Give the backbone structure.
Amino acid sequence: MNFRLIISLVLGYGVIINPAHAQTTNWPEEPGKALIHQYCTGCHQLNQITQSAGYSQVGWQELISSMIDLSKSPHRDTITAYLAKHFPQNSARRATLKTGDISIDFKEWFVPTLGQRARDPMQTPDGAIWWAGQWGNLIGKIAPKTGEMTEYLLPAGAMPHSVTHDKKGNIWYTGNKNGSVGMLTPSTGEITVYNMPDPKAKDPHTAIFDNNGTMWFTLQHSNMVGRLNPATGDIQLVTMPSPHSRPYGIKLDANDTPWVACNGSNCLVKIDPHTMQLHEYKLPHANTRVRRLDFASDGMLWYVNSSRGRLGRFDPTSGDSKEWPSPSGPKSHPYAIAVLDNVVWYNESGVRPDALVRFDPKSEIFQSWAIPSGDVYAGIVRHMRTTREGNLLIHQSSSNRIILVTPQ
């Protein structure tokens, strides 16, 4: 069967140096610099260090331990000492946290495979929590009551961007790097792959099922949206009205009509579920870029204006929109969003720590919290979804954590 039950942490991590990532600025020539190039740039660019909030040596050790296991390496102390000396705690991108009357609890699960960039958790009807481990080429499952975690390896090169589920209990992923979507049958571990019918459709991104069992999905850099009929395997694709729109998040309104956020243009797009005709709505400011969106029960569409650091509301009936500045300002880069009991939740990914923000549309009051990653704070949340119990599921992809947020 194509799955594995993880019972212990991965003890090693292969590093492949990418020369483009290894080019850096003038860091001090001291012990540790070359080692950081060796161990860090195989997975991410060094701007992830230079743009961080900085940590003590203990903090750097904890953060690194969520990415790569250096516990048996003789170089760990040298690396973390260099980082602590030259990248200590700083306030360059500090979040502006708003206090208020609401309290919340964070419950964290540290997923097994290191360096996988865990993301996009969602709850299935049986209460289980699933996530996508994009860089680990896997999807995972948490049993919340016991904390047991199972990880399922995917076909080579899938690199899942997100997960969703259908009414039959199957788990679907978007193969962001090999132009596919796939279905996992949890009871058997069997994976069924559906390849895109057009070679230009390279990067399935985010998917959602409507009430008829049809899957709708975005393809960001391919500038397309797609529809899959699971009964037949038929996939239909349409290109976005504007070039370089970069369709990103996708949600359904109360009429089961899909709406898409544009991460490359100032637009929202409605998909006719019968004809797949696309209707584009331009948002007022040309520099607007929208990562994700969600709907309230009154039919209002809420979105994050990621490029301008604002929260937005769009009326699909009138076409009117209104925006509010996010607490941490124009560079806060709001990213994920979810509407829970008609209250809007989103995160500010451009600041450190990554902040979880609550906005009450009735009072227009913001409140925000620093999102923990163990004993440190390191973003970022790229997607959030609600649970049946009225909670939020978020994650910290930089530190491989899935988080349940319970408002009190």
Q: What stands out?
A: The mean pLDDT is 92. The chain is about 10% helix and 40% strand. The radius of gyration is 21 Å. The chain has two domains: 19-86, 104-407.
